[in-house]
Structure formats: structure tokens, C-alpha cells
Write a structure and sequence with these properties.
- By secondary structure, this protein is an alpha/beta fold.
- Helices cover 47% and strands 14% of the residues.
- It contains 13 helices and 6 strands.
- Strands 2-1-3-4-5-6 form a 6-stranded parallel β-sheet, with helices on both faces.
- Helix 11 links the parallel strand 5 and strand 6.
């Protein structure tokens, strides 16, 4: 029997096991689900930061708590990799996750028990960014639900709205500030770091072949199904920039006369409340429920 499938991508500092509750809930709905550790996360950061054995019995609360205790160590490995990436240009922010997700898509399309025309993708925060880029790059993604990830890096850069995003991976920017002889992180520092660890991500000039900020790449998902879930007051994904992305995607859909679905779900709540909620357990908030219902309906 063949079944639709979903690729899940976790937030910064988390790991594949962090998505277990969501995976189980979707599996009970008849979807094959798969999650993987992003580069320099989970067992790809610390070998001991994973399951003791590949059995469902090992994926219990005590094991997840033990994995969670390694988060600070895993984050250091990730931040060190981004610092190295800034200096060498060899390590990537977000782009490497999307690259790995393409291989996961290859694997799913090889499996005889998967409906290859019905593969969805979902990610949160860092995973949400990777989800949008994966869906833009790979037409095999039938529907995508990036949560707290879609944003315009260029809009944030030129409007000095980059502080919260920079703070989430601060060591690379602190290193650049020092190397550039600056007393503080400014727009020039931010632009230099993005150019090294995510070349093209903060570029919005359509005449440039290496530009792929969200207003340029989100439209590539049309006419396939897309649900963008963001918070109204999330400083890491400023709402004005999100609206630019969605406007570009909607224009692509209308110009092509395509019957696709583009929806923006804005959580009308204080950012602090939202941040605390999803950080504590992504499986519980309504953002996950909305993404879950969307993918189940469309797949």
C-alpha cells in the first residue's frame, strides 16, 4: 500500500527527535513521516546526542530529556561551524539543510511505498527557512508549510530589522565585527556575514542570477500548495517583509492563472508569548496544528 509522505525540519539547536510527537501524530493520520538532523545539529554535532538504539521504545520522555541536556554543547558546535563558514566560505547557513533535504526527497522517491506525487514538507524557524527553499528548488514537493521561517532578508537588512535574526546566531557576526575592525555590529557587518554563509539569501535584485531572497524564490512554489505560518510580532521574521514575500507569491499565482492555495496565517498575540510557547514544545501550539491540518488536507 502506498502512502503520502512528509519531510520535517527542526529549529535551531534542536534535532530530529524533537519532531517525534509531530511525526507520530501524522503517522496516525496515514502519512509516512521522516525527519533528519540538520548539519551540526543532533548526532551530526555530538555523536552521543541521539537515540541509544533505533527502536520506538527508546524514543520516550527520558531519552528525549537526555538528548535535550546536550543542547548547549550542540549549539556551540553549530555556532563554531558558522564562524568557520564566515571566514572560509565553506559552511552554509540554511542552504546546507535544503541541500540535505533534496537527498531526503531522492530517498522518498526511491521508496515503493510512497506516493511520489504527494510529498509534503514542513519546518519550523531554521527548518521553516529550509522548507521554503526546498519547495522553491524541488517541484517534487507537492505542498509546503514553513512555520516562523519565511522572511525577506533583504528587507530586514536595508530597514535595520536584522537584530533579532542576528542574535540567534550571534558568534559569526561578533567574529565579523572584530575582523572588520568595528566597535559594534552594523549593516555592513551583517551584509558581509550573509554574503559568506548564505550567498544570495539577502539579495533581492531579480537581474542577479545568485539572488534568491524569499520575494524572488517563494513564487517558484506556485502553483503548488503553500501555507506560511508566522507570528504578527516576531522580530526575527518582520511582518512587513513577510507580506512582501506573500505578495510576490500571490502575483506569480495570479499571472499564471493557477488554481493554487496561498494562505498567510498571522498569529495575533504578543511575540514573547509565542516565543516561549513554541520553544517549550512545538507539538502543542496551534501553529503545528494548522500546519498539520493543512498538510493532511492537501496530501
Amino acid at each position: 500500500m502506498k502512502t503520502p509522505a512528509v519531510v520535517l525540519m527542526h529549529p535551531t539547536g534542536k534535532c530530529k527527535e524533537f519532531m517525534a510527537d509531530t511525526m507520530e501524530r501524522w503517522a496516525r493520520k496515514g502519512l509516512l513521516t521522516i525527519a533528519f538532523d540538520a548539519p551540526y545539529h543532533g548526532e551530526r554535532a555530538l555523536p552521543e546526542a541521539g537515540l541509544k538504539d533505533l527502536s520506538l521504545s527508546s524514543l520516550g520522555p527520558s531519552q528525549l530529556k537526555e538528548i535535550g541536556s546536550t543542547e548547549s554543547g550542540r549549539l556551540k558546535v553549530y555556532f563554531d561551524a558558522l564562524v568557520k563558514g564566515y571566514r572560509s566560505g565553506n559552511e552554509r547557513f540554511v542552504l546546507d539543510i535544503s541541500r540535505d533535504a533534496l537527498w531526503v526527497m531522492d530517498y522518498l522517491c526511491f521508496r515503493p511505498d510512497v506516493v511520489h506525487e504527494r510529498i509534503g514538507a514542513m519546518g519550523v524557524s531554521l527548518g521553516g527557512m529550509a522548507c521554503w527553499l526546498l519547495a522553491a528548488a524541488d517541484e517534487r514537493v507537492f505542498s509546503a508549510a514553513p512555520a516562523i521561517g519565511v522572511q525577506s532578508f533583504h528587507h530586514s537588512l536595508v530597514n535595520d530589522l536584522w537584530q533579532a535574526r542576528v542574535d540567534s546566531i550571534l558568534p559569526a557576526f561578533e567574529t565579523a565585527k572584530t575582523d572588520m575592525g568595528k566597535s559594534k555590529i552594523d549593516q555592513e557587518v551583517v551584509k558581509a556575514v550573509w554574503a559568506q554563509i548564505a550567498p544570495g539569501l539577502a539579495e533581492a535584485d531579480p537581474s542577479r542570477e545568485d539572488a534568491f531572497d524569499a520575494p524572488l524564490t517563494l513564487p517558484c512554489i506556485a502553483p503548488r500548495y503553500l501555507l506560511v505560518v508566522n507570528a504578527e510580532k516576531d522580530p526575527r521574521c518582520p511582518l512587513e517583509g513577510v507580506r512582501l514575500c506573500l505578495a510576490a507569491a500571490e502575483e506569480a499565482r495570479l499571472v499564471a492563472f493557477m488554481l493554487s492555495l496561498f494562505r498567510l496565517q498571522i498569529r495575533k498575540q504578543q511575540y514573547k508569548r509565542m516565543f516561549m510557547t513554541w520553544r517549550s514544545d512545538f507539538a502543542l501550539p496551534s501553529r503545528a496544528t494548522r500546519a498539520s491540518d493543512f498538510l493532511i488536507d492537501e496530501l
